[in-house]
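Shipment paperwork, digital attachment
Item: protein structure file
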Amino acid sequence: MFKGRKLLIATKHQKEKVLAPILEHELGVSCFINPDFDTDSLGTFTGEVERELDPIATARKKCLTAMKISGCDLGVASEGSFGPHPTLFFVPADDEFLIFIDLKNNLEIIAREISTETNFNGTEIGSLNDLMEFADLVKFPSHGIILRSHKTDTNNIVKGITTVTQLTEVYKNLSNQFGRIYAETDMRALYNPSRMAVIKNAAKKLVDKIKSNCPKCETPGFSVSEIKKGLPCKLCNSPTNSTLSFNYHCMGCNFEVEKLYPNGKSSEDPMYCDRCNP
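Attachment content:
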């Protein structure tokens, strides 16, 4: 279905470096980018352009817009968000979505990867020593830094700082004008190897989904559409919050199947039961 076709990677931040090798090897496609499409027009991490849509809708719009401009019917785009982990509330996380769109075959396949392996951080800086301590904390210079006059300023801002000389010079210029300044991690993929690694893992999940075909009609993307809780307690048989089954759904023929006990166990330890261990 995909072998020999051209696939557009909608990015201006060099994500093709981790996406193209995986997609080309696994799907037999030929990847390319369109440098004329500015993905920042849909939102920037630093606030110059606010993201108006949720991450999936943004990735979809990014992909479809780039495909239209490029005259291509096969594309992939990613969108990342940074903040507290959805379940480990005080731990910062990188939440990446990848969307694969095939207009020729009316397919849309989405993969998600959430990782705590991120250097996402930001703080107010009052001295050069403070700045160097922050730089060490966020893996500088392998990971870029952004400096600006204050946290919400989108005018006096310098991005993509990757050398000590540049960092020192920008700090002196800004601190001479504004006193205390704000330092943050540059979360754009080309300046953030940790984020690139998460995008790479998302790409592996994506190709696994693409290569999972419906047992009824062979449409790609036969994957988990719903996770059902309710694994019974081994002691009292009450339903717990542990996973009971996965529901799989086909986008082509709407065939569905439920697979019980996906984690290899048919009951849960009583320590995880709200009735036995309230």
